[in-house]
């Protein structure tokens, strides 16, 4: 296929392209070839100031009537127009995302379909928001009536990761705009190209200036000042636990609300009553999808001892059949990881596991047929103990660790023995067992007889060090709404608490 050039873009502020104040740019490295294929602008705190001010003006323009207090169907019109443009540009956007992030093209096409679907979903919720205003509250005193208003929080800062560059951004952009907020989006510097294309779509559909501003740049130079800015009313962050902690610290200085979707080390329990091939495919998909770079990856595999030997053998056979290639090649199922830094980090995890006594049963290095690019074979590691780094820490790469168990209680104990609690999965033909295990998992998301399916309509988020707050579904809209109680005194009688003056 013909590879399109990466468009040269500037920062998107107040409805127009603007060069960074310091005029710096960051190279875009294709992770498949290690070639520089373009540059993105590098925003700094000076650009953050301009963007936040633009968002603040957009929020209050015409006393809020242009956006924040506008009817929900007006905002829905823009969200639907954006969705239509994403669909129109789907092939181009998917190709750019594969070039920028290394994700297989079949995945990025799917992602673009989800992006459009997310805008459509929140357009529906924006339209329904007005009808839900003034919801009555039942009170114990007849002389009072009370109702609730849901109002946009204000200017929001959205800091997003590189593993789903556009989709994860839209998980925040779509509901925040549907709610009536205005936003400053700061995507990861490792994969920002499609977020800048989203800005171009917003410009094309005539989104009011300042409603969405897109700043690309380094976290320390753009993300940190955004999180700490006094005119930003809320921060929504997806990324690592370490960075999330810094974002929370900055926001805490102003008692600013935050929502956090952080790392994970999710378990998958496979019992001994399953179809081994079906379970093997889900086990590999749950860890190797998106090149293994998923916060919810079920990278801790717990297999019942009765089937462990045969099941692990099947896992290796299935892994050998995974096509590892340039993500634009037909049938690619595992592309490169996003950057040289990630590549080195993952290999270091694998090396440490080996030095601690684990067995690298399959993979663990660069595929022999790929001499360039940040490629790592699908890796399966056995003989793992619960104290090993590879078992406890998030690798964020195509690395699956396996332990065995003998009882349901032991499996649950091993599954929950983690600082993280984003996702968890169980595969079994016993429905009652699956129900018990689902309730016992310490996780925000549970999959039964599958791993990783995600739907715009269902809540997404974790517990423990995997963060708090929920994205997607109606819960995602609530992230960006403030609840206001209004109470009326309806009696004609005086209150009568104080003795009236003579």
From TrEMBL:
Claim: Oxidoreductase is one of the keywords in the record: yes
EC number assigned by the record: 1.2.1.19
Domain Aldehyde dehydrogenase, first and last residues per copy: 24-486
Keyword list, A-Z: NAD, Oxidoreductase, Sodium
One Pfam entry name: Aldedh
Annotated active site: 261
Recorded metabolic or biological pathway in which this protein acts: Amine and polyamine biosynthesis; betaine biosynthesis via choline pathway; betaine from betaine aldehyde: step 1/1
Molecular function as annotated in GO: aminobutyraldehyde dehydrogenase (NAD+) activity; betaine-aldehyde dehydrogenase (NAD+) activity
The keyword Oxidoreductase belongs to this UniProt entry's keyword annotation: yes
Matching SUPFAM superfamilies: ALDH-like (SSF53720)
Name of the top EC class for this enzyme: oxidoreductase
GO-annotated biological processes: cellular detoxification of aldehyde; glycine betaine biosynthetic process from choline
Catalytic activity: betaine aldehyde + NAD(+) + H2O = glycine betaine + NADH + 2 H(+); 3-aminopropanal + NAD(+) + H2O = beta-alanine + NADH + 2 H(+); 4-aminobutanal + NAD(+) + H2O = 4-aminobutanoate + NADH + 2 H(+)
Family from the record: Belongs to the aldehyde dehydrogenase family.
Protein's recorded name: aminobutyraldehyde dehydrogenase
